[in-house]
Amino acid sequence: MNKKLTVLGSGDAFASGGKFTTSFLITAVDGPDYLIDCGASTLVRLKQLGCAIGRIDRIFLSHFHGDHYGGLPFLVIYHRFMLQETRPVTVYGPEGVADKVRQLQEALYPGTGGLLDELGWQFVEYTHQWQTAGDVDVRAIPVTHAPASRPHGLRFREGSFQFAFTGDTEWDDRLIELADGTDLFITECNQYGTESPGHLSLRTLQEKHGQLRTKRMLLTHMGDEMLALHECAFERMYDGMEISLA
């Protein structure tokens, strides 16, 4: 396997520190590629980094908040009006993903909902068991965030390499299962000591990290308190960071 993860955006919903919204791009030498989350700034970042947008054929959504899936309508119209050749995209997400994406498309670009069918985009709901999605396996595990957003942590299997992403969540014992035995564990860490519902703080992660059995842990979705820290016991993500999945 010769794949890498590029951090398109590691920010929170408030663009703290000028960070872009959550999205990770996983690329292979010859494609196809896929996205994990598609925050509102995703197309901007793909263009800035010169990514081959037409090679993306899957998008995995952790939950239905704008900083995690609000970029989808921009990708849809880009596929329709800017790409000369494109492959159908499959969007994997929580229950109701097809309706949520169609509603979002119509809200941002009224009258364009039909483009999803015209382009052949498909939708697959998570089963909470391992699911094969092209050349990767994914398992979605419910976590604790705003219930209406249907929040999930996502675990991926790339050959013998396994990595996981918490999405947005406060502490939930299911994170232990999500992280267990992974090579890479990406966890949100919104604040340093402030405990806000639906989010993790560094203080909580410091208390609980011994239960998270992973080879490497990275923090993302950081707010102002976290970004102001000069030193941190855990590795922090940054926009543009590249990570080998091997």
Shape: globular
The biggest beta sheet, please? 7 strands, mixed
Uncertain segments: none
In percent, how much strand structure appears in the residues? 25-35%
**What's the pLDDT, averaged over the residues?**
96
Classify the helix fraction into a percent range.
10-25%
Nearest-angstrom radius of gyration? 17 Å
Individual helix count: 8
N-C termini distance: 7 Å
Side by side, the strands of the main sheet go: 6-5-4-3-2-1-14
Q: Give the helices and strands as they follow along the chain.
A: EEEHEHHEHHEEEEEHEHEHEE
Annotation, overall tally of beta strands:
14
| Structural class based on helices, strands and sheet pairing | alpha/beta
List keywords for this structure.
246 residues, alpha/beta, 8 helices, globular
